[in-house]
Protein backbone atom coordinates (compact mmCIF):
# COMPACT_ATOMS: atom_id res chain seq x y z
CA UNK A 1 0.00 0.00 0.00
CA UNK A 2 1.41 3.41 -1.01
CA UNK A 3 2.04 6.19 1.47
CA UNK A 4 -1.03 8.15 0.37
CA UNK A 5 -3.22 5.03 0.38
CA UNK A 6 -2.10 4.27 3.93
CA UNK A 7 -2.81 7.87 4.97
CA UNK A 8 -6.25 7.63 3.33
CA UNK A 9 -7.05 4.47 5.31
CA UNK A 10 -5.89 6.14 8.53
CA UNK A 11 -8.06 9.18 7.76
CA UNK A 12 -11.14 6.99 7.41
CA UNK A 13 -10.33 4.79 10.42
CA UNK A 14 -9.06 7.57 12.68
CA UNK A 15 -11.20 10.60 11.75
CA UNK A 16 -14.34 9.52 9.91
CA UNK A 17 -15.46 6.26 11.55
CA UNK A 18 -14.96 7.52 15.14
CA UNK A 19 -17.30 10.46 14.37
CA UNK A 20 -20.29 8.13 13.92
CA UNK A 21 -20.08 7.81 10.15
CA UNK A 22 -21.33 4.29 9.52
CA UNK A 23 -22.60 4.54 5.92
CA UNK A 24 -20.40 2.07 4.05
CA UNK A 25 -20.91 3.88 0.74
CA UNK A 26 -19.40 7.08 2.19
CA UNK A 27 -16.49 5.21 3.77
CA UNK A 28 -15.79 3.43 0.48
CA UNK A 29 -15.99 6.72 -1.46
CA UNK A 30 -13.49 8.38 0.84
CA UNK A 31 -11.17 5.41 0.55
CA UNK A 32 -11.41 5.56 -3.25
CA UNK A 33 -10.93 9.31 -3.86
CA UNK A 34 -7.29 10.47 -3.65
CA UNK A 35 -7.55 13.68 -1.62
CA UNK A 36 -3.92 14.51 -2.41
CA UNK A 37 -4.84 14.91 -6.10
CA UNK A 38 -6.93 17.99 -5.22
CA UNK A 39 -4.17 19.68 -3.22
CA UNK A 40 -1.25 21.85 -4.44
CA UNK A 41 2.02 19.86 -4.55
CA UNK A 42 3.52 21.71 -1.59
CA UNK A 43 0.49 20.79 0.57
CA UNK A 44 0.13 17.12 -0.29
CA UNK A 45 1.86 15.93 2.88
CA UNK A 46 -1.06 17.55 4.75
CA UNK A 47 -3.81 16.07 2.58
CA UNK A 48 -5.12 13.61 5.16
CA UNK A 49 -4.83 15.64 8.35
CA UNK A 50 -7.92 16.62 10.33
CA UNK A 51 -7.96 20.24 9.23
CA UNK A 52 -9.46 22.68 6.76
CA UNK A 53 -6.78 22.52 4.11
CA UNK A 54 -5.92 25.68 2.18
CA UNK A 55 -5.73 24.89 -1.55
CA UNK A 56 -5.31 28.48 -2.75
CA UNK A 57 -2.46 29.26 -5.12
CA UNK A 58 -0.90 32.35 -6.60
CA UNK A 59 -2.42 34.93 -4.29
CA UNK A 60 -6.00 33.97 -5.10
CA UNK A 61 -8.79 34.24 -2.55
CA UNK A 62 -8.50 31.65 0.21
CA UNK A 63 -10.24 28.38 -0.67
CA UNK A 64 -10.16 25.25 1.44
CA UNK A 65 -11.05 21.59 1.55
CA UNK A 66 -13.14 21.27 4.71
CA UNK A 67 -12.30 18.65 7.34
CA UNK A 68 -12.99 15.12 6.07
CA UNK A 69 -15.06 14.13 9.09
CA UNK A 70 -17.31 17.22 8.76
CA UNK A 71 -17.92 16.48 5.08
CA UNK A 72 -18.61 12.80 5.80
CA UNK A 73 -21.10 13.52 8.59
CA UNK A 74 -23.02 15.99 6.41
CA UNK A 75 -23.16 13.52 3.51
CA UNK A 76 -24.45 10.81 5.83
CA UNK A 77 -27.24 13.11 7.02
CA UNK A 78 -28.16 13.95 3.40
CA UNK A 79 -28.82 10.27 2.61
CA UNK A 80 -27.76 10.61 -1.03
CA UNK A 81 -29.19 7.93 -3.32
CA UNK A 82 -27.69 6.60 -6.55
CA UNK A 83 -30.55 8.19 -8.49
CA UNK A 84 -30.13 11.67 -6.94
CA UNK A 85 -29.04 14.83 -8.72
CA UNK A 86 -26.76 16.76 -6.35
CA UNK A 87 -25.38 20.30 -6.35
CA UNK A 88 -22.10 20.83 -4.50
CA UNK A 89 -21.92 24.59 -3.95
CA UNK A 90 -18.48 26.14 -3.49
CA UNK A 91 -16.51 22.97 -4.15
CA UNK A 92 -13.08 24.69 -4.33
CA UNK A 93 -10.66 22.17 -5.84
CA UNK A 94 -13.37 19.55 -6.32
CA UNK A 95 -12.68 16.94 -3.62
CA UNK A 96 -16.21 17.01 -2.18
CA UNK A 97 -17.69 16.77 -5.68
CA UNK A 98 -15.55 13.69 -6.37
CA UNK A 99 -16.74 11.99 -3.18
CA UNK A 100 -20.38 12.84 -3.93
CA UNK A 101 -19.96 11.53 -7.50
CA UNK A 102 -19.46 8.06 -6.04
CA UNK A 103 -22.76 8.32 -4.19
CA UNK A 104 -25.10 10.09 -6.64
CA UNK A 105 -26.24 9.64 -10.22
CA UNK A 106 -25.48 13.19 -11.36
CA UNK A 107 -23.41 15.93 -9.74
CA UNK A 108 -23.14 19.62 -10.56
CA UNK A 109 -20.39 21.51 -8.73
CA UNK A 110 -19.92 25.26 -8.62
CA UNK A 111 -16.92 27.34 -7.64
CA UNK A 112 -16.35 31.08 -7.90
CA UNK A 113 -12.62 30.83 -8.74
CA UNK A 114 -12.20 29.88 -12.44
CA UNK A 115 -8.63 28.65 -11.80
CA UNK A 116 -9.92 26.15 -9.25
CA UNK A 117 -12.60 25.02 -11.70
CA UNK A 118 -10.01 24.36 -14.41
CA UNK A 119 -7.81 22.33 -12.05
CA UNK A 120 -10.79 20.41 -10.69
CA UNK A 121 -12.00 19.47 -14.16
CA UNK A 122 -8.55 18.10 -15.01
CA UNK A 123 -8.42 15.94 -11.88
CA UNK A 124 -12.01 14.71 -12.23
CA UNK A 125 -11.29 13.69 -15.85
CA UNK A 126 -8.15 11.83 -14.76
CA UNK A 127 -10.23 9.96 -12.17
CA UNK A 128 -12.83 9.04 -14.78
CA UNK A 129 -15.70 10.68 -12.89
CA UNK A 130 -17.85 11.46 -15.91
CA UNK A 131 -21.02 12.16 -13.90
CA UNK A 132 -19.70 15.51 -12.57
CA UNK A 133 -20.21 18.87 -14.30
CA UNK A 134 -18.01 21.56 -12.74
CA UNK A 135 -18.92 25.20 -13.40
CA UNK A 136 -17.52 28.63 -12.59
CA UNK A 137 -20.35 30.42 -10.78
CA UNK A 138 -21.04 32.44 -7.67
CA UNK A 139 -21.67 30.08 -4.79
CA UNK A 140 -24.85 31.85 -3.65
CA UNK A 141 -26.36 31.60 -7.15
CA UNK A 142 -26.24 27.83 -7.35
CA UNK A 143 -27.15 26.55 -10.82
CA UNK A 144 -30.73 27.49 -11.79
CA UNK A 145 -30.31 25.97 -15.26
CA UNK A 146 -29.86 22.46 -13.84
CA UNK A 147 -32.29 22.81 -10.91
CA UNK A 148 -34.16 21.33 -9.20
CA UNK A 149 -31.79 19.19 -7.13
CA UNK A 150 -32.50 16.30 -4.79
CA UNK A 151 -29.60 17.35 -2.55
CA UNK A 152 -27.50 20.49 -2.19
CA UNK A 153 -24.22 20.31 -0.28
CA UNK A 154 -22.58 23.50 0.96
CA UNK A 155 -18.85 22.78 0.86
CA UNK A 156 -18.23 25.29 3.65
CA UNK A 157 -20.16 27.61 5.93
CA UNK A 158 -22.76 30.31 5.37
CA UNK A 159 -23.40 33.36 7.55
CA UNK A 160 -26.70 34.12 5.79
CA UNK A 161 -29.77 32.15 4.75
CA UNK A 162 -28.98 30.95 1.19
CA UNK A 163 -32.42 31.71 -0.24
CA UNK A 164 -31.50 31.16 -3.89
CA UNK A 165 -30.18 27.70 -3.08
CA UNK A 166 -33.32 26.84 -1.13
CA UNK A 167 -35.31 27.70 -4.24
CA UNK A 168 -33.37 25.10 -6.25
CA UNK A 169 -34.37 22.15 -4.05
CA UNK A 170 -36.85 19.64 -5.41
CA UNK A 171 -39.87 18.91 -3.24
CA UNK A 172 -38.51 16.47 -0.67
CA UNK A 173 -34.97 17.73 -1.32
CA UNK A 174 -32.32 18.27 1.35
CA UNK A 175 -29.63 20.92 1.82
CA UNK A 176 -26.72 20.29 4.20
CA UNK A 177 -24.11 22.79 5.30
CA UNK A 178 -22.58 24.60 8.23
CA UNK A 179 -24.65 27.59 9.32
CA UNK A 180 -22.59 30.28 11.03
CA UNK A 181 -25.73 32.32 11.62
CA UNK A 182 -25.49 31.47 15.32
CA UNK A 183 -22.75 30.84 17.85
CA UNK A 184 -21.45 28.22 17.88
CA UNK A 185 -21.78 27.44 14.16
CA UNK A 186 -23.75 24.25 13.50
CA UNK A 187 -24.05 21.80 10.66
CA UNK A 188 -27.72 21.62 9.71
CA UNK A 189 -30.02 19.84 7.28
CA UNK A 190 -32.79 21.84 5.59
CA UNK A 191 -35.68 19.93 4.01
CA UNK A 192 -38.07 21.26 1.36
CA UNK A 193 -41.67 20.11 1.66
CA UNK A 194 -44.39 21.68 -0.48
CA UNK A 195 -42.99 25.20 -0.33
CA UNK A 196 -41.96 25.06 3.32
CA UNK A 197 -38.44 24.62 4.65
CA UNK A 198 -37.74 22.85 7.91
CA UNK A 199 -34.31 22.59 9.50
CA UNK A 200 -32.65 20.31 12.01
CA UNK A 201 -29.33 20.75 13.82
CA UNK A 202 -26.86 17.94 13.14
CA UNK A 203 -23.74 18.85 15.14
CA UNK A 204 -21.51 21.77 16.11
CA UNK A 205 -18.91 22.55 13.45
CA UNK A 206 -16.60 25.37 12.44
CA UNK A 207 -15.38 25.64 8.85
CA UNK A 208 -14.45 28.65 6.68
CA UNK A 209 -17.29 30.72 5.23
CA UNK A 210 -17.90 30.35 1.50
CA UNK A 211 -17.32 33.43 -0.70
CA UNK A 212 -20.57 35.28 -1.30
CA UNK A 213 -22.27 33.81 1.77
CA UNK A 214 -20.68 36.19 4.27
CA UNK A 215 -22.79 38.32 6.61
CA UNK A 216 -22.95 41.94 5.49
CA UNK A 217 -21.21 44.28 7.95
CA UNK A 218 -23.63 46.08 10.22
CA UNK A 219 -23.91 49.86 9.87
CA UNK A 220 -22.59 51.61 12.96
CA UNK A 221 -23.62 55.19 13.76
Automatic annotation (TrEMBL):
Q: Is the keyword Lipoprotein assigned to this protein?
A: no
UniProt keywords (A-Z) are: Methyltransferase, Transferase
Tell me which SUPFAM superfamilies the record gives.
Answer: S-adenosyl-L-methionine-dependent methyltransferases
Q: Name one GO cellular component term.
A: cytoplasm
At the top level of its lineage, which domain of life is listed? Bacteria
> Pfam family example for this protein?
PCMT
- GO terms, biological process: methylation
Give the matching InterPro entries: PCMT (IPR000682), SAM-dependent_MTases_sf (IPR029063)
Q: What GO molecular function terms would the record report?
A: protein-L-isoaspartate (D-aspartate) O-methyltransferase activity
Q: Which Gene3D superfamilies match?
A: Vaccinia Virus protein VP39
Q: Which family does it belong to?
A: Belongs to the methyltransferase superfamily. L-isoaspartyl/D-aspartyl protein methyltransferase family.
What is the name attached to this protein's record?
Answer: Protein-L-isoaspartate O-methyltransferase
Organism (species): Bradyrhizobium erythrophlei
Amino acid sequence: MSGFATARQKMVDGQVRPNDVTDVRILDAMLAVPREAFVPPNQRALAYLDLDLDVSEGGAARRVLIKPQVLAKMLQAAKIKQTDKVLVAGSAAGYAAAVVARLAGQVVATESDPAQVAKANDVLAQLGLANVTFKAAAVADGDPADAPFDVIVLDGATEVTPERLYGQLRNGGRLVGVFATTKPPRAMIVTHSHGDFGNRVLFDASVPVLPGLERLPAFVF
